[in-house]
Amino acid sequence: MARYELRRIFLDRGVVGNPVADGILSKAGGIPVTMVNGIQEATRRLSSFEDSIGEGKHSLLITRQKGEFVKKCPGTHNRICCRYYIINLVVNCPIDCSYCILQGYLNNPAITIYVNIDDLFAQMEEKLSSNSGRIFRLGTGELGDSLAFDEMTHFSTIMVPFFSNKENGIFELKTKTEEVGNLLDLDHRGKTVISWSVNPEKVVEEEELNASTLARRLDAARKCQQRGYHIGLHFDPLIYCPEWERDYREVIEKVFEKIDGKGIIWVSLGGFRFPPYLKPIIGNRFPASKILLGELFPGNDGKLRYLKSIRVGMYREIVRWLREYEPSLFIYLCMESREVWEKVFGWSPKDNKALDNLFAHRVRSFTPMSQ
Ligand code: SF4
């Protein structure tokens, strides 16, 4: 937490006296707290800053989730999707990746922490019981970093025990940090996966501001693996540059120096992609970024990506290098077409459900589930 500079906390009047909000405030030290009437007021106050997105990363909003906590990952048009569920518990994060899609996606720039945990539990129970024959994968790391504020929220200490006795749900925390202190002594019973997004140190330094170095992420992963957690890895976004082969090979070497490949439950690969509206935001906020230097072309879902031949070439090589270390790895592509799957692996899932079934099979081989 110390690495993130918090300048203000907005406290929604509607959650005054909420015990989770009180717990967070008790760790706020001298950070000024301003009472607000809902998200709109916090947004309005931040909109007066020239870089409201940047300022939002120094601002916490503690409020109530009035919508759905648990949502299906929207995936993207015409691509294979893995039927993942997103838990909207903390939205936005203090890490400032140049490529972060949230910069153009969220209306409210503050890091928003929802504290009506009883509603969260009810919705998660409802989702899991909606189909007891299916293994649901759910995670908090799609709209923010799962662990960046864990020292302050202690959310991992309620989520991990919640899932520890669930028979058809596996929970994923996804992070670019080393903030695993709260996790190490939890009784997780194999129902939580802790995943790290990985990239070459050069990319971390230039494009992932405020994130932990790759070396520190992997040290944290090692600690978690020693405590019996399953580890996930996300090579996403893969960044193309003339030295990409050397750089990603080095990442893979470092991964296997620290982590036992047999304990890696899944690995995703996803090439850099973004909707066109993000381009001017990246240009304004990160003028020194090299991320837009590659040639990027619009796909049929409207997002810009590297040429298919470049993506396929990167995926194939990375799969090959990963399998040199651990042939049994479960590797999947994020937001890619069947054609790309075929070119990379020589096969593709028939549809989204088929991919979901493969995940279920993988989860069962790691953790006893009732199905
Ligand atoms: S860690 Fe994830 S959510 Fe946070 S800025 Fe980077 S890409 Fe965005």
What would you note in describing this structure?
The chain has a single domain (75-108, 117-366), classed as pyruvate-formate lyase- activating enzyme (Alpha-Beta Horseshoe), CATH 3.80.30. The longest helix is centred in the last third of the chain and has 18 residues, at 308-325. The protein contains 13 helices and 18 strands. Helix 8 (214-226) packs parallel to helix 9 and helix 11 (308-325) packs across helix 12 (338-345). The radius of gyration is 20 Å and the shape is globular. The protein has helices spanning 19-26, 38-46, 52-56, 117-129, 150-153, 156-164, 201-207, 214-226, 244-258, 278-285, 308-325, 338-345, 352-366; strands at 8-12, 33-36, 59-63, 70-72, 85-87, 90-91, 96-97, 111-114, 136-139, 169-175, 192-197, 208-209, 230-238, 264-271, 273-274, 297-298, 304-305, 331-333. It starts with 7 loop residues before the first strand and ends in a 5-residue tail after the last helix. The chain is an alpha/beta fold. Strands 4-5-9-10-11-13-14-18 form an eight-stranded mixed β-sheet. Strands 2-1-3-8-6 form a five-stranded mixed β-sheet. Helix content is 36%, strand content 20%. The model has no long low-confidence stretch (mean pLDDT 95). Strand 1, helix 1 (19-26) and strand 2 (33-36) form a beta-alpha-beta unit. Bound molecules: iron/sulfur cluster. Iron/sulfur cluster is lined by residues 93, 95-97, 100, 102, 144-145, 176.
